[in-house]
Write a structure and sequence with these properties.
Strands 1-2 form a two-stranded antiparallel sheet. 50% of the residues are buried. It contains 17 helices and 2 strands. Helices cover 73% and strands 2% of the residues.
């Protein structure tokens, strides 16, 4: 294994040695983010039957799978592909905010991991609580950043091992320990509170899940052998993301309703009620810890790509990972040691992250669809330089417009959007922003194609007439 340094340039064919199965396991383990348990608890506490919300939000991983295809075809990361979608200034702004957002995800994961390690140290009574918290910070950070530091191959191998354990234990929780009959019996029920109430719950699950994962979609398909089909790559990411996200939501819901895990403003607590004996209890703690580490592997690895685009320079991945680790560990330490509100910190982070990732996801999904069509048909008008330049300007315009629209529909501790009364004061910003950017981008790109293809035909006829006269 060699330590990687390339972040922007296309991956060499000699280094593309992975199969679609590697992407499947990366997303299966990576989307099993125990750091999102507070969101599950919030949904489970406010909605009598949140199962429909869980299933609908998992299905949105079709967007992640779609956005992953350009990276597979071109051998580049997601944010590098964004350079072909947006103008240079907009893509660097998106990369900068995306880098900060990834550090936020790492911080959130480390916070939860610290709480779990501290709870173990506290129960074993091996040292005072404050030194225990410091030890948890050191252990958690070393575990989180060691594998991505080595590179993609090490990450893929680690995710495969972690996914086997995580999936096995989650199935034990679902089938044997707490049974899933109550969950399965209400799958088709609509959450209590009506249409807007259900949509608001779906928006929370989306911004905490599939939509937030979309900027990392191509970061791993770029290492898959080019000889594999796009269909196999698409299906591997779709099934990996849906399986991981669904198991996370279902097992989290069951643990919440049976008192196995509790969330308070001061942190997460893994109760002894989670299991009938100590061995199962400590296996559960290992399960939670590994899932958090797997999620942070993706966040820390993907952040290096965004950082290089933001700086507009090929920077050694090792330096960027060290920087991420220092910042995320410092922020996590402040929250854990000083006792800042755990749930409020997560809610505020998600409310700010949606402003950029929501418009980006809709625009990227539309452009990825166009990329796939062009790859199959080789449409002349879609490869014209003037078309590409206009397309970048239109995409950038849609991004700015959707950014403003998402802010106007947002509801958080910082502001309440001016357009909230239109949704009866429910925060539907993620769903509205995503659908608006997706549909508007599709309309503008179709119109641009129609105009440009007609223009190309006119030029072709003129060329033929000139050639005929000669």
């Amino acid at each position: 294994m060699e330590i990687e340094s390339i972040n922007i340039a296309s991956t060499e064919h000699s280094k593309r040695h992975e199969s679609p199965w590697s992407a499947f396991f990366i997303w299966l383990a990576g989307t099993f983010n125990i750091g999102l348990y507070p969101i599950i608890f919030m949904l489970s506490g406010e909605y009598t039957t949140p199962q429909l919300i869980f299933i609908a939000s998992s299905s949105f991983f079709i967007v992640v799978a779609m956005i992953s295809i350009p990276g597979f075809r071109l051998g580049i990361s997601t944010i590098a592909y964004s350079k072909t979608i947006f103008t240079n200034s907009i893509v660097r702004a998106i990369a900068s905010i995306g880098w900060i957002t990834d550090i936020g995800w790492q911080t959130m994961g480390l916070m939860t991991l610290f709480y779990i390690i501290v709870s173990v140290i506290d129960r074993l009574d091996v040292m005072p609580l404050r030194p225990g918290a410091i030890s948890a910070i050191v252990i958690g950070s070393l575990l989180t950043y060691s594998v991505p530091f080595i590179g993609h191959h090490a990450l893929a191998l680690a995710q495969k091992i972690i996914s086997i354990f995580v999936v096995s234990f989650s199935m034990i929780i679902i089938i044997y320990d707490y049974h899933a009959s109550t969950f399965a019996g209400h799958v088709l029920n609509v959450a209590h509170g009506g249409f807007y109430y259900t949509l608001s719950g779906l928006c929370v699950a989306l911004i905490a899940g599939a939509i937030s994962w979309s900027p990392s979609a191509s970061d791993y398909t770029r290492f898959i052998k080019a000889s594999h089909s796009g269909k196999s790559v698409f299906l591997s990411i779709l099934f990996g993301g849906v399986a991981g996200n669904s198991l996370l939501l279902i097992s989290g819901y069951i643990l919440y309703t049976n008192g196995g895990v509790s969330i308070t403003q001061s942190g997460i607590l893994i109760s002894r009620n989670i299991a009938s004996n100590s061995m199962i209890y400590y296996l559960a703690l290992l399960f939670f810890g590994l899932s958090l580490i797997a999620t942070n592997f993706i966040s820390s690895y993907s952040s290096t790509f965004k950082a290089s685009i933001a700086i507009n320079k090929e920077v050694n991945k090792s330096y960027l990972l060290v920087l991420d680790g220092v910042v995320a560990t410092t922020l996590s330490s402040i929250v854990v040691i000083n006792g800042h509100s755990y749930i409020t910190s997560i809610k505020d982070f998600l409310s700010l992250a949606q402003l950029v990732v929501v418009p980006w996801a809709g625009i990227a999904a539309a452009n990825s669809t166009l990329f796939i069509i062009n790859h199959r048909s080789r449409i002349l008008a879609l490869n014209d330089s003037s078309y590409l330049k206009i397309k970048s300007s239109l995409n950038s315009f849609v991004f700015i417009l959707t950014f403003i629209l998402t802010a106007c529909f947002s509801k958080n501790s910082f502001w309440h959007g001016y357009l909230l009364p239109l949704t009866h004061n429910f925060n539907l910003a993620p769903l509205i922003g995503f659908l608006f950017s997706l549909l508007l981008t599709c309309i503008l790109l179709i119109f641009l194609y129609w105009w440009k293809s007609g223009y190309v035909k006119i030029l072709s006829r003129k060329a033929q007439s000139i050639g005929g006269s000669l």
